[in-house]
């Protein structure tokens, strides 16, 4: 997508760094965490922690978050330019290769030391990672960047709200559900397959978050996500070869796919390494909820994918539901 969604690019710990890049996730992709509850390493410090940080570092962290979000969504938009030549599956294959190169270089997993107890969630994470990005990019091809990323974002939002007994979270869940109903309302132009793919990306992003928890508990450092990225890239290797044989990519299509991989996988992951050391988890999660809006704006400006008032209202309602849930939580 969250590569999710389209989504941003959301990994186990702040020191081990997390994003859906193994995403992201993406978009989504690409990928994002909503709060410390989604990722055990994103620990929520006291509110005063933010005040203790130097203004310059906070500004740098916020600027990096904005750049990461725009990079993730811009990468997905650029990747969509290669759809006519190699299709979403070809673009996703290249994105998986780029993610694997970056994460294997950073994580340096010691694969021979992994036990079967450690391999199980890593393999599951690899499968979910690839499925999430493929379903997100296929949704982008059918319903556009903004709506695809918005539907994918429902995955982490459901994880954040599930199990909560607060009335405000129940209200947030109702608002998000109403927004989804509005987005998927029957109409002649509705592409239900595309919407279904967006919801599949949401399910994958939610599964990605839960599997990341298990990987973070069982595998030290960033070795687990790096190993998962490598396995996912191997899974897409025959896919990439098949696409290259049956639909030989043009130079421009290959360039678009590579740029998408860099902007939606490498840049968000490295940006999160920087951001999570400078911005509290609550602020990080709050900003990640803005990704559907960024996706809609990038789709509108870069791809000419305009949304109607109903769609904009629904996107805003889902973002507001997540923001309200985060802002009303206590340390």
TrEMBL record:
Instruction: Identify the stretch(es) annotated as Disordered.
Output: 1-54
How does the record say this protein sits in the membrane? Answer: Multi-pass membrane protein
Instruction: Name the InterPro entries on file.
Output: AA-Vitamin_Transporters (IPR050638), EamA_dom (IPR000620), EmrE-like (IPR037185)
Transmembrane feature ranges: 119-137, 143-161, 192-211, 223-245, 251-271, 283-303, 309-327
Please list the residue ranges annotated as the EamA domain: 193-325
Q: Which domain of life is it from?
A: Bacteria
Q: Which UniProt keywords apply?
A: Membrane, Transmembrane, Transmembrane helix
Major location category of this protein: membrane
> Of which family is this protein a member?
Belongs to the EamA transporter family.
PANTHER family associated with the record: EAMA DOMAIN-CONTAINING PROTEIN, INNER MEMBRANE TRANSPORTER
The entry's protein name is Inner membrane transporter RhtA
């Amino acid at each position: 997508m969250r590569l999710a969604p389209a989504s941003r690019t959301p990994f186990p710990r702040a020191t081990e760094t997390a994003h859906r890049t193994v995403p992201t996730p993406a978009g989504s992709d690409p990928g994002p965490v909503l709060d410390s509850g989604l990722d055990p390493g994103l620990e929520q410090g006291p509110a005063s922690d933010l005040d203790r940080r130097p203004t310059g570092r906070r500004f740098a962290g916020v600027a990096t978050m904005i750049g990461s979000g725009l990079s993730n969504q811009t990468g997905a938009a650029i990747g969509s330019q290669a759809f006519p030549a190699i299709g979403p599956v070809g673009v996703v294959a290249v994105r998986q290769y780029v993610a694997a190169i970056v994460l294997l270089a950073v994580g340096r997993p010691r694969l021979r030391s992994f036990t079967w107890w450690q391999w199980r969630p890593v393999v599951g994470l690899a499968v979910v990672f690839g499925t999430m990005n493929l379903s997100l990019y296929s949704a982008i091809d059918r319903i556009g960047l903004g709506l695809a990323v918005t539907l994918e974002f429902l995955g982490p939002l459901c994880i954040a709200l599930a199990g909560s007994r607060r009335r405000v979270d129940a209200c947030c869940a109702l608002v998000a559900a109403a927004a989804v109903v509005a987005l998927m309302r029957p109409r002649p132009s509705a592409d239900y397959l595309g919407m279904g793919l967006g919801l599949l990306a949401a399910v994958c992003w939610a599964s990605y978050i839960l599997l990341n928890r298990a990987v973070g508990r069982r595998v030290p450092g960033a070795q687990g996500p790096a190993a998962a990225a490598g396995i996912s890239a191997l899974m897409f290797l025959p896919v990439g070869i098949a696409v290259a044989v049956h639909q030989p990519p043009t130079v421009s299509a290959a360039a678009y796919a590579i740029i998408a991989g860099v902007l939606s996988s490498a840049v968000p992951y490295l940006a999160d390494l920087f951001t999570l050391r400078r911005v509290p988890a609550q602020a990080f999660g709050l900003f990640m909820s803005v990704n559907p809006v960024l996706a809609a704006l990038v789709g509108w400006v870069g791809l000419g994918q305009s949304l109607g008032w109903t769609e904009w209202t629904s996107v805003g309602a889902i973002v507001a539901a997540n923001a309200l849930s985060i802002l009303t939580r206590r340390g």
